[in-house]
Each structure stands twice: as structure tokens, then as C-alpha cells.
Sequence to fold (300 residues):
Amino acid sequence: MSSAGCWLAEGEALPSCLTDLQERAPSALWGAGDREAVCGLDHGATVTIVGSRRASAYGLRVAEQLGHDLAAAGVTVVSGMAWGIDSAAHRGALAAGGRTIAVLAGGPDVVYPRSARRLYREIVATGAAVSEYEPGALPARWTFPERNRIMAALGKLVVVVEAADPSGSLITARDAVEKLGREVGAVPGQVGMRTAAGTNRLIIDGAALIRSAEDVLDRLAGVGATSVRRTGAPLDESLRLALDAVDSGAATTDAVALAGIADPHRAAVALTRLELLGYVRSNPAGGYVRTTLEHPVRSA
Fold:
């Protein structure tokens, strides 16, 4: 996108939540995409999701699911369009047909990383990319931690999915708590994993434990105020048994077959059908993981 497609918001047009930054508040925001998505931002229905660039498959899956389910519930998802957790959160929100805002470390028309061009185009098609730097400005090492304060200010709640200790994501969390009075949530990670050290420490220090979008929505609107439970198509007995096996920890075709569901061929067919219906998702390792899609309550 050329700078001609960018807009400028300043003064009263800026989201009021940015004033919480006080002397560190940007005097203006340059943007690309939907200006109203930023200038008319509903702070009470906005969540910032951040995390490691070197995320695990688990972290990427959780971030994408959170982005999807929150956007499906009408929440605006804010992140930084970096590799890893940020991009996964944006992709999830876009897949749900929701609105997402990317806060950039360069000008609003400068795509970084360059491999994110397609993601950038999708974000500005329905949401926006914003920056305190003018169009054409290239990102620098110091502009990345600087933009974190804007991400923290835009969200009513900041969710850290995966983060090493120390990391830029923890800077965002610290800004949110100490300088903005925002609430911080963290997704628990596997003990011993470098990318889980930061989030697990945040939970120890009092951050809200986030297991799903419902935990986030409980913090935003009160317990049970909003639900993102999604129900899929009815399942026949063989598919229900295969799904129960995955729920019990069977992650591969052979494991599902060994659970007594069927022979490996029939187990593979069942898992393929479950994936097409949205109940499971395949991963790069050739296994299957459960999504949040629920099957209808079985009649008595």
C-alpha cells in the first residue's frame, strides 16, 4: 500500500484509552485500512494478544483459537503482526470474520516482516494497521519495544500466550499493569519450556489464568455474560467414539485405532471426517488435536 492510502488521527480522533499513557501517549496515529476501527474503538471490547516470535505449535494453536473465538464474540483483537503468536492471533480473528488491529513498529504502510504481506492486506481490508510513525518510516530495534505501550493501551485486557523471560511480551505486560492499570492474563505452558517461563511466572505473580476465550470474556463482561461455545454437526457413533479417543489423548491414527475404535484405515477415515467437520485439527507432526467445537448433547 502506498502512503497515499494512509490516514492520520490526532487530537479527539484518537482512541480515548491512549490518554492513559499520559506523557508517553502518542500525539497522533497514522493508519491504513478502516479508520473507524481505530477512531471508534470500543475499549471495553478490545483485547491485546502478544507472545513469542519463536512460538511452539501449542502456542500458535492457542493464539489462533483465542483470536478466532474472541473475534467471533465481537471482540476486537489487537496484536503486533510479528512472526509467531502475533500473526496467529490475527489469523484467527480474520478466519472468524472479525476485526483485528495491527500496531506496527514502522510506518503503517511498511510491512514487517516482509513475509506478512498477505496477512497485512487481509488485516487492512477489514480492520487496520496503525503506527505513531509516518508512512514510509522503517522499523528500528528501539521502535519495537516502543510500540508495545500502544498495544497495551488499546486493549482492556492483555493476554500473553507464550513468552520467554525476559521478552518483549513481558514488557507489554509490565506496561499494562504498572503504567496503565490494565489487567493481564497468561496462558499456562509446559514446565521447562523456554517459551513458557514468562507466562508461568506471570501466573505466579497474579496474572489471570487464561485457558480459553471464555476465560477472557469472563474478565471483560463478567462470568457467563458472553459465551463462545460453538456446536458442530451431529456425529454418528463411529465418529463420536473417535472423537472421544482424541479427547482422551489419542493423537494419531494408530492411537485412535488402538483405543478400540476401528482398524487403522477406518480410524484414518473417521479422523479425516472429524477434521472436515471442524472437531479436530491436524498438526505438522502428523497428529490430531481437539478444537473447541462441541458436539450436540446426546439425547437420553
User: Anything to note?
Assistant: The longest strand covers residues 28-33.
